[in-house]
Q: What sequence folds into this?
């Protein structure tokens, strides 16, 4: 049987502003399996980022259940979610959030200093192809290189799960390819379960599964039986 990493059951999220309520997730049921690359596609406001934030322990569901393996995330308080994030989850966002006064290696080292079983910063940077740039400051790096430093920082603590919210959104298509290549390398070499939110439909070809979102629900799912071969053809 497949090793299930996430299980969502009737998961809902409602945001309230005054008398207005916005339902971001509508009774979502979902399973994510270990080692998968899953792409989440859909228009803005369809619930993709809300789901990723709840999976990452950055937000609370309104109702329903979400499990990380045997741990019920929807039953944890803020302290429990912080411990969960620290031990199990790496994040990559659209904007890199690097510290300008630190080198690439030093930015990655910030995570390795507090992780339980980290890899060396130079090892993490080598995984994303930046071993020759580790002593450069963010201002000396291109946008794609800065994003790859952010990926190295996210995976340096050896997370089981890597959650990526529009990781190529601020990049041109050629540079975005390098970033996706880095994510696939990490998935292939470390077995990290990887979820990627994107508006770029072509990225779906590198995924094991594509989840199409609409109005807070998964409207359909596509399983790509040949994603490795497809990825090689594209890149």
A:
């Amino acid at each position: 049987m497949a090793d299930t990493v996430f299980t969502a059951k009737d998961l809902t999220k409602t945001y309230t502003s005054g008398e207005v309520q916005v339902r971001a997730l509508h009774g979502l049921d979902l399973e994510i399996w270990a080692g998968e690359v899953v792409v989440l596609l859909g228009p803005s406001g369809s619930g993709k980022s809300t789901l990723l934030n709840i999976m990452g322990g950055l937000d609370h569901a309104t109702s329903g259940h979400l499990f990380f393996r045997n741990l019920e995330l929807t039953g944890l308080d803020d302290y429990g979610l912080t411990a969960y994030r620290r031990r199990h989850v790496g994040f990559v966002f659209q904007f890199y959030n690097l510290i300008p006064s630190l080198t690439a290696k030093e930015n990655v080292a910030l995570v390795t200093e507090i992780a339980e079983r980290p890899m060396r910063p130079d090892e993490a940077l080598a995984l994303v192809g930046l071993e020759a740039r580790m002593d450069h400051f963010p201002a000396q790096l291109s946008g794609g290189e800065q994003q790859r430093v952010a990926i190295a920082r996210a995976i340096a603590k050896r997370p089981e799960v890597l959650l990526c919210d529009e990781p190529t959104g601020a990049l041109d298509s050629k540079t975005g390819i390098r970033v996706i290549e880095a994510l696939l390398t990490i998935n292939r070499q470390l077995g990290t379960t990887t979820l990627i939110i994107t508006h770029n439909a072509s990225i779906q070809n590198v995924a094991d599964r594509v989840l199409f979102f609409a109005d807070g629900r998964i409207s359909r799912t596509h399983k790509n039986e040949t994603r490795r071969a497809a990825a090689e053809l594209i890149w």
Observations:
- The helical segments are 48-55, 78-88, 104-112, 121-127, 143-155, 173-190, 227-234.
- Residues 205 and 234 are 8 Å apart (CA to CA).
- The longest strand covers residues 4-17.
